Amino acid sequence: MNSVLIIDDEESIRYSFERILRANGYDAYSAASFEEAETLLESREINAAVIDRILSGGENGIEISQKIKEIFPFCEIILVSAYPTFESAAKTLEISLSAYLTKPVTKKVLLEYVNQAVEKSRAKKSENDFEKALELLFEKSPDGILICERSGKVKYCNKTFKKIFSIDDGDKDDAQLLSLLNVKGFSFSHENKISEFFIPETIEETEVPIDSPKRKDGFYSVSKYAYGNNLGYLISIKDITEKKVIEQSFERSSRMEAIGNFAGGIAHDFNNILHVITGYGELAAEMADKKSDISKYINEILKAAQRAGNITEQILSFSRAKGEKSEPVDIEPLLREVIVFLKSTIPSTISIKENITKNLGPVCASKAKIHQLIMNLASNSAKAMNEKGGDIVIGLEAADRSDLLKIEENPGPGDFVKIYVRDTGKGIDKEHLEKIFQPFFTTREGMGGSGIGLSIVYGIVKKMGGLINVESEIGRGALFEIYLPVASALSVSSQTEKTNETFLGQGRILFVDDDENIVKIAAKMIAHMGYEVDVFTDSEKALEAFLENPRKYDAVITDMTMPKIRGDELASKVASVSPQIPVVLSTGFSEKLLNGEVPFGVKKILNKPVDRVTLGNVLKEILA
């Protein structure tokens, strides 16, 4: 009877293999280690051994295989591994291996390879079985494998290698096969020996782009192994295209996150400057003769400061996109904001036109996501026109139900609005039109195209419960249509209504900001409205003053980002002592406020720069 030895530290695996083999006519024995197996080997011969590559206690299946081969040279070894690596596979070249299987091993696979192993053992094949074992090991490998002699004669080439380079059997001679491996500028030919390509007895890995008929955009890891006393070489080619794309995407995401943080820091400082400009400008406007040129000049300064504040807010929308919650928003003003921003960023050879319908109702979305969506589409259109220029039309209109049904059979109930971006660029061919929303797909390879912009657009639209459609022809530009459901049952949240009335109030305000210029202008603005005010640039001293006499103050206005004690921490301490005192948190940019949650103790949040009208309205509201 044919004997098979099983060595595995998992009892369930040993029992399963033993039961399967005995049921199929084999004399099967099992052991948890080589020490246990030695007793069995003393009393019987075995034709094949099924051995786990890594056993508990540090035992190595390859080493055990060598020991068994010393006792029974004709025994065929089947190595089993839960996670085979190429390095471990390469080590098996030192022994005559029958098969290298990956767990879990099915009954069919086990019997198939044990049958083959026993047949080889009974036939007592010669050392030439090495090449057949190697072929069995590597033929189904996902990596391309080529084995050659130092002279350049190819000994073995697996199916994956041929598939990568679209090679048919017998299609290329040895020199042509090796010429496919142009790495580091070395070109193989009949005159060049393959040994020139290797450093003896080393393992080297190189990442290279490989140009083949089926994969012109692939990246491969080429590993070269010297084996057999430096008489030959084993070359492995691993497709790492997806790995490279993921790495590049991660690098882009990291850069964008850094840019967002950088933008937030700049916005914080810039908003402080605008706060001072706006404050003093408004005070000067009140003191100036309304009919004088000076009054006109001051008003223009205030308008410019307001525009600067709007641009800063747009930058912050991009930097904090991931933290914004969806809410009912009016698309019309958002589109106009993006158009203003686009006109200052895209080349002057490109004209941006708008066709926006008013009063279409809100959609449930994140403002930052709408910004990102339109910016990506417009940027994509601008790149399509390159240096030649052209027109981009950004539009908003009520969606026709019949258009929705052409895209999807069941688009959902209710009304939709349609946002569209149309350009006069070179257009997209039909072959690419079906792939443009796939991550990392780009028609501008080597020209700065990342392949992620349109996939982001697709993801944003789907998350909002919308639909997207694209129409394009070569030479006739492209049209992107986005359909978003109207949040008809919801209303757009509004900020505190502004009025131009003169604010006169009563009470004492505690004002805290680490910027001395902001403290000065705030003191003047608040006093000008009739309130008494104590100002601090040191948050610790401000807290001490409050704790000495909490009843002295009717309200607290504090900056968010300050050394020593942050604004939210100060608000919490004030609320714990006097919960009835309203606290207003003023901020130019803060990561802690991106999720939209109001910190404990805070009655109101003010975004810098704060003008006199807004500040007056807020004080009137919280002290009412």
Structure notes:
- By secondary structure, the chain is of the alpha/beta class.
- 40% of the residues lie in helices and 21% in strands.
- The protein contains 19 helices and 22 strands.
- Strands 2-1-3-4-5 form a five-stranded parallel sheet, with helices on both faces. It has a five-stranded antiparallel sheet with strand order 7-6-10-9-8. Strands 12-14-15-17-16 form a five-stranded mixed sheet, with helices on both faces.
- The radius of gyration is 37 Å and the shape is elongated.
- It starts with a strand and ends with a helix.
- The model is unreliable at 183-193, 199-203, 445-451 and 489-500 (pLDDT under 50).
Number of strands: 22
Helical content class: 40-55%
Mean pLDDT: 77
- Given as residue ranges, the uncertain stretches (5+ residues, pLDDT < 50) are 183-193, 199-203, 445-451, 489-500
**What's the arrangement of strands in the largest beta sheet?**
2-1-3-4-5
Distance between the termini: 99 Å
Rg from C-alpha positions?
37 Å
Beta strand %: 15-25%
Q: Please give the count of helices.
A: 19
Envelope shape: elongated
